[in-house]
Amino acid sequence: MASNCEVFCEILIAILLPPLGVCLKKGCCTVEFLICLVLTILGYIPGIIYALYVIVFQNRDEQSREIRAPLNSA
Hints:
The protein has 74 residues and is mostly helical. The protein has one domain. Helix content is 86%, strand content 0%. It is built from 4 helices and no strands. The protein has helices spanning 4-16, 18-26, 31-42, 44-73.
């Protein structure tokens, strides 16, 4: 689980360079990175919005799956 400082740094990087923030979070050869790169090329603001979505909301989905995993296996 990421600390608040790590999340803050990821969000700051995503605002400055959206594809870099997604690359650090998901990897450079992922669909998320390519989508963010295309959106940033088309417009800076859509790239930022998508990068923040990937960093903040997809991270919550993964954490909720980890929390529910012991309940599903029982």
